[in-house]
Design brief:
mainly alpha
Amino acid sequence: RDEMGDAVSAGDEEALRQQLQLAAELQGERPSIDAALKNYVSLLTARLSTSGGVAPGVAKDSTAQLDCARVFAKALNCLELPTHVEWGKLYPQLDGETALDFMTRLGRLRVVRALWLQCTKAGQKPSKCLGRSSLEAVFPELERRVFDEAEEAKRPVALRPHLRAFSDGLRATLAARAADDAKGGAEGDAAAEAPLDDAQSDHELVWCAELGAVLAARQRSRQLEAQGRVERAASAQDFASELRSALGAPAASTVEVEEVED
């Protein structure tokens, strides 16, 4: 309330209403950041045990993924977010970002900061109370703190490339959702039918409330797709057999030729 109290003193009731609505939406987002980090670690660990997919120059090490998650969670919960005015100076308007989008971004950060302060004052961890949108809002500051030179010097050298890859991948899941939100409109139904690319797929797994349910749904979808391929192949084979049979045994001609005498 302290963060948003000046809106009331200025008589801007509509602005306050919008801020309170946004605050309620942010508080209700699920999964929490903490749960999403666990999903993300599970995803990375599964890849290491199957395809071994890791960033170039990064060794396979599932323990390192847990260490990275701990570093991010600790840094996140220790964040002291700057005010929206200071944030605008630290992270000014981006290339291609309109003035309205920039002001909207600062307004969202203002609400996130208010919720952040409420969590810390109540002795709660923001990572357990807030979700994807809040992490997206504070991610630039989180990365700045995580990769601060003084903090980097305290960590094992071997962990540093893992941490950078961890951060890049987590940021990609946020960007995938942002890009998906930007489509909207008439493209929504078509996008829902289109196959997911890697970033969208990761986003769906990381930011789902029930990871097991999503994995089960994907398995059912793959089984139905495989069954469909088998059925289509059988149908094509039957059609080919019928066609070969028809071509190999042509029907008797019903055309009669009449001889004409001169």
